[in-house]
Amino acid sequence: MNFKIRPATKEDCKGISRMIMELAVYVKMPDQVKISHEELERDGFCQNPFFECLVAEVPEENKSTEGFTLVGYAFYFYTYSTWKGRSVYLEDLYVMPEFRGNGIGKGLLSKVAEVGKKKQCVRLQMSVFDWNTPSRDFYAAKGAQDLTESEGWHFIRFDNQSLDNLANEAPKD
Amino acid sequence: MNFKIRPATKEDCKGISRMIMELAVYVKMPDQVKISHEELERDGFCQNPFFECLVAEVPEENKSTEGFTLVGYAFYFYTYSTWKGRSVYLEDLYVMPEFRGNGIGKGLLSKVAEVGKKKQCVRLQMSVFDWNTPSRDFYAAKGAQDLTESEGWHFIRFDNQSLDNLANEAPKD
């Protein structure tokens, strides 16, 4: 299938927002999505953007059954290891179900790796659910390591009240 | 004990670099550190910095047995959730052993939470080793959730040859 991968523009944010929700439905957490396309426009297309995004687009004649031509996206940002330096973190990788099996996911992933290498990143990282065997197998087949299994890394989060409590206890300048 | 927490300057990078190595020794991976203070200077103090850092400083009269006044640091950057938006990620939190028990670690953590809230971040995240019970207990006592335990998140990485292979397979524009 003919498809093109290109950097997202501000005008793509509605389409990205639709696919963010589709992915959340796939991972069984649709009620977790609190972000709007206006917030994506604000945070991704400003002076120091919080993220970057690639989209996969098909020609009009291959559009989805619902009429969409944006059929996948890779949402990423830059992080930093105090041991190794610049890294790129892939937050989301998604291809609409009816377009899978055409190399689009692989193309998006490789393109993020290429963008990262151009920025002198030495790592590409991401997180997956333990039950998400298709994704884990997809990454493993391409040479990724599972660091939770091999080194015992756990993922920790403060949010809501626990984040407010912490911030309120900060020493005064 | 008297201490001050302030944003790091370029001149602090040598001291931060020393403490990065001390922390790597503590987590039993000193041979993993490949980053120099010159790289920290370049990547943290440029137009679009890859990270931010807070340092904890004690007065000259309380300096360490080896003569250091920088006794702790918190190294962080901004990430982004496609469900919740702006987030802050704490890569390293470290206090020199002889200065522990004085609230410096707690002060650094709270200050990162405060900085994050000012930037409208809704999450503060980090990773810890499963064997690092002191750190896991420290974060849990302050209200953090372990997402690897509660939701099954695994941490995945491409680096070295697997990253090069991916990048080389990227579709041409």
From TrEMBL, chains A, B:
Keywords: Acyltransferase, Transferase. Coiled coil: none annotated. GO terms for biological process: polyamine metabolic process. GO terms for molecular function: N-acetyltransferase activity. Transmembrane segments: none annotated. SUPFAM superfamilies: Acyl-CoA N-acyltransferases (Nat). Gene3D superfamilies: 3.40.630.30. This is N-acetyltransferase domain-containing protein.
